[in-house]
Design a protein that fits this description.
The protein has 253 residues and is an all-alpha fold. It has one domain. 76% of the residues lie in helices and 0% in strands. The protein contains 10 helices and no strands.
């Protein structure tokens, strides 16, 4: 992606408020919207449309956003195999009893088929992947690339993606009782957000390498949806495992 002279100044003025909005949205704003969590998907879909309109008004092109049709073949060529690798790894992990507990998530322990279907078919694709990929690997990366050299733009977008996940990571740590005491919990959150920032860098690299937003969308969609299915399957299989076998997995004996 290369910065274009047309709209360059507007894009520069657009970047600073964009960073502030993205830093606050997932950690503060979205949870305070009326009827949350029911408002999560419609609010994020609406935010996606508004952000795209703002980016175009700032002079950022469809090509810079990764939305040009000519880039779709490259997006499929890179994103398709990534999705397949994630799916195969999750399926293999869930099939191995000793590895299966790593996929468990207490937030899905009591979920029925309808709950899982809503997560996989609506909440994740529309409320999470569409919004986050448009915001971070589409608009933010394009705006940052007009201001910084590309490696710095990738790094900055990845760091902000990690910051974006502070609240959800803290909730996941608490729900799964992953760390005792406040200090260890915040260390766990820091570690989780660092891992998410690394994933954000990979998504951004895929966007640049493939020339299309489709590539990181496919990888992100595969990671979240297949991960959710794997977590639900891990809980169901664990419930069907004899008590002695479950004890062995839990104790590592």
């Amino acid at each position: 992606m290369h910065a274009r002279p047309v709209g360059r100044r507007r894009a520069h003025a657009f970047t600073a408020p964009l960073v502030l909005v993205l830093g606050a949205w997932n950690n503060v704003v979205v949870t305070r919207l009326p009827r949350y969590p029911g408002s999560y998907v419609p609010a994020n879909v609406a935010a996606t449309g508004l952000l795209l309109m703002a980016a175009r008004a700032a002079g950022i092109s469809r090509e810079e956003l990764g939305l040009d049709r000519q880039g779709w073949p490259g997006g499929l060529r890179w994103g398709g195999p990534c999705l397949a690798v994630v799916a195969a790894a999750c399926a293999a992990g869930v099939a191995v009893p000793a590895v299966r507990p790593l996929f468990a998530d207490a937030r899905l322990a009591g979920a029925d088929g309808g709950d899982v279907a809503y997560q996989v078919l609506i909440r994740i694709p529309l409320g999470t992947v569409l919004w986050e990929e448009t915001a971070f690997r589409g608009v933010l990366l394009a705006a940052l690339t007009r201001t910084f050299f590309q490696p710095a733009a990738l790094g900055a977008s990845a760091v902000l993606f990690g910051v974006w996940h502070v609240r959800p990571t803290a909730e996941a740590v608490a729900a799964n009782d992953l760390a005792p005491g406040p200090v260890m919990r915040w260390l766990a959150v820091l570690l989780g957000c660092t891992a998410t920032a690394a994933a954000g860098w990979l998504f951004a690299w895929l966007r640049v390498r493939s020339g299309s937003l489709l590539a990181p969308v496919l990888l992100h969609l595969g990671t979240n949806t297949v991960g959710t299915l794997a977590a639900a399957a891990a809980h169901r299989l664990d419930r069907g495992t004899p008590r002695r076998s479950r004890s062995r997995v839990a104790t590592g004996t």
